[in-house]
Amino acid sequence: MLNTNDEINSWRDATKIEDMISLIDRGILLPWQDSRKVLKGMAPESMEIVIRHIAKLFDERSDQLLSMEILTESLLAFISAAGEKKLIYQFIAEIFSQVHQERCIDGLIKTVLKNDLIDKDYREGAFVLGIFLISELGLAIFQYKEETQDNAPWIDTCLHSIATHLLALGNENNTHIRLALLRYFGTFNVFPQYRFSFNRILSRFAHTLLEQLFSQLFNRKNEASALSYLLEVMPYIFEGDQYAQQIVYYNFRHFLLKYPDRFVMFLTEIAKKYEELPQERSDLSLDTYLKHLVALFDVCNEVDHKNLGRDVLMVIINFSENNDVKLKAYNLFKQLSLRKSFLEMGSLLVPSLKHDEILKTLSKQSTKKRGRKPSFSKNSENISLTNMDNLGIEISKAS
Questions:
Q1: Rounded-to-integer distance, Cα 134 and Cα 113, Å
Q2: Contact assessment for residue 204 and residue 220, using Cβ atoms and an 8 Å cutoff
Q3: Shared-domain flag, residues 242 and 291
C-alpha cells in the first residue's frame, strides 16, 4: 500500500495498479460512471491483479456487510467496464484459493441478490451481471468437483445455496437472467435432485425464451450467438418432461414451416452436437431428439411438402448411422399414417438397407436450396459479456 501522503481519494485520479488497490483497500467505491475511463488502456495483466485482489478481500471482509457491498459493486463495475469474460473466471479461481470459500460465496450471493446499488441508473445491468457471475461460479464449482472428485462439505453447501437462490429468480422477466438459469439448471439436470428444478424453470418461461431464441437464429446479426447458445442447451431441454417437449414441438413446427431450408440446417447442427456429448449425457436426450425429427417428418407429410420431408429425413439418416438408432427411427416411422410418397421415403430406414444406398437414393431426389445460407459459425464464448445483449434487451453498462 502507498504512503498516506501519496494516497489518492478518487478513482478518477487512479493511474496505477497501486492507486486502485489502495482505493479498494480503503473501501472507496468504484463509480459506474467513471469505471470505463479508469480502465481505458489498462493491460489485461493489470486487470487480473486488481480482480484477484478484490477476491482476497472477499475472504478477509466476508463478515463485514458494508465492506462486502462496496466490494461487490466495485467488482461488477470493474468487470462491466472491462467487458472481459475471463475476469470472471480469474475472480472465481482466486475465490477457490481462499481459506473461507463458503463464506465468500455466501456473501457474494447475498450482496448481489440484495440489488440495492448506490447508483440506481445501473441497478438492472449490475443485477443481471451479478446473476451471470453467480451462475458461472456454480458451474465452476461443479466442474471442479467433477475433475478433482473433491467431496469437501463447502462444495455441496455452496451448490445447494446457489441453486436455491437462482431458482427463486424463475419469475424474473429478464431475458438475460432466463438465459443464465436455463443453462445452469440444464447442466445440472443430469442429477436426479435437480430435475424438478429444471422442469420448473422450463414450465415458467421456456416457451417465450425458445421463441425468442429461434427468432434470433434467423436474424443475420445475431444468428451465430443464438446458434451457439441453442446448441449448448437443446440437448438439456430434450431431457425435460413431456410439457417441455410440447413446447419444443410447437416451436420446431412453426420455424420449420417458416424457414424450411435454414431450419433444416439448424437440425443438422444439433445432430452433430451429439458427437461431442458423453454417452451418459446423450442417451435420453438423443432418443427424444429422434422423436422430434420423426414428428417433423410427419408435419411435412401433413402439409404435403415432399422436398422438406426429404430434407428432414436426410437429417435423420445422417444422424442414425448407428444401427441401434436407425432401428429406433424405423420403429417410430411405422407408427405414422403417411401419404404414399412419404411412406416410400420412410421405408428407406428399413434396417437392411445400407447407409450409402439410402443417401444415394435421396441425393437423386434432392432439390437445390434457395436463399441466403446463414453463417451459423459456432461462437466458443456462448453467452458471454460481449454478446449476451444480442439475445435480449439491452442492459445498462458502465460508462
A1: 10
A2: no
A3: yes
Alpha-carbon dihedral of residues 30, 32, 35, 37, nearest 10 degrees? Answer: -130
**357 HSE (CA, 13 A, CB side):** 8
Residue 34 in grid coordinates: 467513471
Distance CA 102, CA 4 (A): 34
* 8 Å CB contact between 129 and 180: no
Which of left, alpha, beta for 304 (phi over 0: left; psi -120 to 50: alpha)?
left
C-alpha 278: how far from chain center: 18
Q: Which domain holds residue 60?
A: 1-168
Query: Would you say 276 and 235 are in contact if contact means Cβ atoms under 8 Å apart?
Result: no
Q: What is the value of pTM for the model shown?
A: 0.84
Residue that the C-alpha cell 467431496 belongs to: 151
pLDDT band at 382, cuts 50/70/90? very low
Q: Where are the alpha helices (DSSP H) in the chain?
A: 17-25, 32-39, 44-60, 65-82, 85-96, 101-114, 123-148, 153-167, 175-188, 192-217, 223-237, 242-258, 260-273, 279-303, 306-319, 323-333, 340-346, 355-365
Q: Are 253 and 297 in contact (CB under 8 A)?
A: no
Nearest-angstrom CA–CA distance, 143 and 137 = 10
CA end-to-end span of the chain: 28
Predicted pLDDT of residue 385: 41
Domain boundary (118, 153, 168) is at 168
Residue 299 maps to a domain? yes
- Which of 108, 142, 168 represents a domain boundary (last residue)? 168
Between CA 184 and CA 163 the distance in angstroms is: 9
CA gap 237, 251 in Å, rounded: 13
Determine the Cα angle at 329 with ends 323 and 330, to 5°: 85
Q: Is the confidence at residue 2, as pLDDT, over 90?
A: no
Does 69 map to a domain? yes
Q: Residue 316: CA atoms inside 13 Å, Cβ hemisphere, count?
A: 35
Q: What is the pLDDT of residue 47?
A: 95
Residues 94 and 38 in one domain: yes
Q: What is the pLDDT of residue 41?
A: 86
The three grid cell numbers given for residue 11, joined into one nine-digit string: 478513482
